[in-house]
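Hi L.,

You mentioned the student needs an example of a multi-chain input paired with its predicted structure. This one should do, with 739 residues in total across all chains.
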Amino acid sequence: MANGVMTQTQYIPYLAQKGLKSWILTTDHKRIGILYLVTISFFFMIAGITALGMRYELMTPELDFFRTATEYNIAFTLHGSLMVFFFIVPGIAASFGNFLIPLMIGARDVAFPRINLLSFWIYLVGTAILLSALAQPADTGWTFYTPYSIQTGTKVIMITLGVFVLGFSSILTGMNFIVTIHKLRAPGMTWARLPLFIWASYATAILQLLATPVVGITLLLLIAERAFDIGFFDPAKGGDPILFQNFFWFYSHPAVYIMVIPAFGIISEIIPVFARKPIFGYKAIAYSSFAIAIISFFVWLHHMFVSGISETAAAIFSFLTMLVAIPTAIKVFNWTATLYKGSIDFHSSMLYALSFIVLFTVGGLTGVYLGALAVDVHLHDTYFIVAHMHYVMIGGTVMGFFGALHFWYQKWFGKVFNELIAKAAWFLIFVGFNVTFFPQFFMGFQGMPRRYATYPEEYISYHSLSTYGSWILGLGILIMTINLLIPLWKKGRPESSNPYGSLSLEWQVPSPPPHENFEEIPTVTDWTYAYGKK
Amino acid sequence: MSSTAEHAESHAHGHGLGEAVTHNAAKLGMWLFLGTEILLFGGLFAAYALFRAKFPDLFYDSHKKLDVTLGGINTIVLIFSSFTMALAVSAAQKRNRKWLMILLSVTFICGAAFGVNKYFEYSAKFHHHIYPETNIFFALYFMMTGLHMLHVFVGMGIIFALIIMAKQGKFKEGNRYTPVEVGGLYWHLVDLIWIYLFPLLYLIG
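Structure written out for the whole complex:
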């Protein structure tokens, strides 16, 4: 460092300050990360319970748990929109992104700490609007497709307004992260030395900036359509209901990668630490995030293969869709190559990372199936899609999220959880997840459509198996949550500030980190993944 | 990029970020945000292109009901306000507080004049029973100009805050004029969007 004068200050962990005010007015990125973590976990629980309700309904072919089919429709709308917009889109990006980005690049905070807090408040306003909408929930599904979303008697405006407001939060967070990564890297932290989670967060932030405004205007138009009857999506007035789908998927397909790219980053951090090997193909992993981000803007029509688009357009979009598989596969191969001849430690976070690779590959490959035109026409709107989507979202993002929770838990909270229980919970989650969703591939293939509360007798064995699986999955998540919550009320700190021997900057500070992260901004001399050299 | 050098310099001053880093960060942040604003309007422009290609006659007939004179005056007012805003940034850089406040105030008044003008335009439309639901053209007209008007109001709020800050003498030293420059960027975008809206809506040939 330029100024060699060490000013030895007393170590005060960032969690030392107590009281409500120290939380809601905080500009500390680590605390804001916790605020997001708590909020998204809350919505994850609500949406998860809704899903358990839906699965319980589907145990038998008749309508027995919900009173009407509309109630079931409301349940899946809630489940989808909460999970997508309130948990998984802001999920890893806002919680772990906030906590990790400044620590990993050697900065004291994000570039705009106050805007960071503002983003969280805007997120809260969005959730408040959404919660108020729960009194009369919508039944449109999380995609709010026109013309049904214009015609339904349920309240669509509130829930879309909530999602619109969330968009602002997402844009501000993305902007903040890009500027932080550009301007606040510590001396010596060159682009080629950046941890891969930072590369992933950067690609995610670009997607957030480019895609969110488009869904913003789409939802605004939907609100105007309902409030002022403007007719953009109404064929009777010369409008075009398919236009809504185009707009919606122009955002929502890139949004899929907003949800999953941060998880790619997390896997790239966990695997080299527990394989004790330098990450294989650093540049390929870093750049493939951007390749995915770019291609993801040109595939949205694959959600609309059965909406009457031209055959040429369908063929082009089918090709582009399959193209996304290449950068994604590059990542999977590189992670596998990192494991090769590594000395692997099966820490709970590593178990989640490994299950990510397996489950995400299933999700990704079934995505290629669905990208093929003829197959898609057969499988469109069946449980095959539901299974594919959940293999990507739970098998991918949620596994990455749980892995991150276990990996950075000590650093973030300065506590230690019970590793044996964590492994047991992982086992239940892994088994439960597969029992729930694997049968759905088969029933989808046999023609079971999604979004129905009742079904013909012949699907009963698949459906009931899936429901049993959901109980195992739910139990696993419950045990995991309790295991992670209990240590927070216990006294004591972890023995080591770097128990897994990571070389990344965030592990070089005490657990939990002090208020401004680094006593002195470090100078970086090597890349983050030089395992095995020392 | 010289960010590393800036960084080293900034941390020599202790825990705060250096002025150069803050200034560049704020500008980059605003540019990124402006990009998202263009994409927000981009959805409306896409809808415009689609519907105009579909209903050329409807667009031609409906646009005749708009008041080109009022729209033209508003265009001149906004372009002029962009000019005064640019001068205001220059005054801030020269730490000329008096001119900074005058120029910001003129910009603010231009924004207000634009709003008043627009109020008369909207009222005239409502008087002739033209509403967003009248047809697709007017739906686009009200959505686009309405969303733009909202941005004018936000911009006026920013300029008002800048006037207060200038009055308190916040832009006196160093690079502290950053807020003026960033606010100016926003105002230019508001102006720029209108420059596209005016011919698209008022001057259909």
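You could point out the following to them. The domain at 27-508 of chain A is CATH 1.20.210.10 (Cytochrome C Oxidase; Chain A). The first helix of chain A runs from residue 21 to 24.

Best wishes,
N.
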